[in-house]
Amino acid sequence: MDPTSIPASGSPPRERLEAVLYELRRVIVGQDRLLDRVLVALLARGHVLLEGVPGLAKTLTLETVARVVGGQFSRIQFTPDLVPADVVGGQVLDRDARFVTRLGPVFSNFVLADEINRAPAKVQSALLEVMAEGHATIAGESHPTPNPFFVLATQNPIELEGTYPLPEAQLDRFLFKHEVTRNNAATLEKIVTQRELGVEPEHESVMDGAELEDIMETFSEIYLPDVVSYYIARLVDATHTGQSRTAEGIKFGASPRAALSLASAAKARALMAGRINSSFEDVKSVAIPVIQHRIILEYNARIDGKTNRQIVEELIAEVPTQDLNTPATIKEAAASAS
């Protein structure tokens, strides 16, 4: 499908996505970057991990997305006493003493995993398995998740007692990790003026699930130029020891999934901008939320006060977009042209 083609609503994808963002910004004030990244991850069929203190509209964000694009929303409050069946479901006895399968709340279009680090490892693994596989097996029977399927997980960084931090291998399953920051005084004034505690904010649904699927289908047609894919490869490679100056502060670098995630996020950002190909700027704009949770810093770097975000920023500054080693496909094209 041509990404510039007209979806079911009769408007180009860019116009429809701008309408979605407009409605989201009417409800979620002062978190434009968060909204952009949530929409990028949704188009790329990825998932997002949010980190921030309570009260920054993390829950409201996903609930509003579900209502604006017309999908089913479910919220799972993770607590230490949860078991995997509370997430994926299981078999229960009906009135006729027969076992029937009851699907859990994870089988929704938009799933909020609230305070995921408060649940034991088995519960976290159950959710992350569904995220990775797109289905769950209950009593030997596979049950696929609906389309679209998007998980937004949150964790509170200030309360560590009674929490179970996500292992690095599970963090790697999230396309983005985004740190939600506090609002400034001007934004707080807007919130106080426009909102009232306990009153649901007004919004409009601008598309349905079928139209969203039509737009998401155009994602695969976004072109990733060789020079951009080569830049992605060099950027991820630079996170490993000996491949860059910045890597001296990194103990373990990013995985190949980071490179795939960068490519997908860059293509989704191009789709949002109404372009048919991704660019270096697309990669740079998503590099921090894609890479920062996929690297582990050296002890000395942590002692110096370095953060994962700062390390990724240094990588972006160090690795040039262009390199003297031209990709093989471009060399072959130049040779054939001559």
Nearest-integer average pLDDT = 86
Largest sheet: 5 strands, parallel
Query: What's the helical proportion of residues?
Result: 40-55%
Number of helices, counting only DSSP H or I runs of 4 residues or more: 14
Please trace the helix and strand order, writing H or E for each element: HHEHEHEEEHEEEHEHHHEHHEHHH
The number of E-state strands comes to 11
Dominant shape: globular
Tell me the structural class: alpha/beta
In short:
The chain is of the alpha/beta class and 338 residues long. It contains 14 helices and 11 strands. It is globular.
How would you sum up this structure, described in words?
This protein has helices at residues 13-27, 32-43, 58-69, 85-88, 121-133, 168-171, 185-194, 209-217, 226-237, 256-272, 280-291, 299-303, 308-318, 328-337; strands at residues 48-51, 73-77, 89-93, 99-103, 110-114, 135-138, 141-144, 150-155, 176-179, 250-252, 296-297. The protein has 338 residues and is α/β, with parallel strands linked by helices. A hairpin with a 2-residue loop joins strand 6 (135-138) and strand 7 (141-144). Helix 1 crosses helix 3 and helix 11 (280-291) runs antiparallel to helix 13 (308-318). The two termini are 33 Å apart. 37% of the residues are buried.
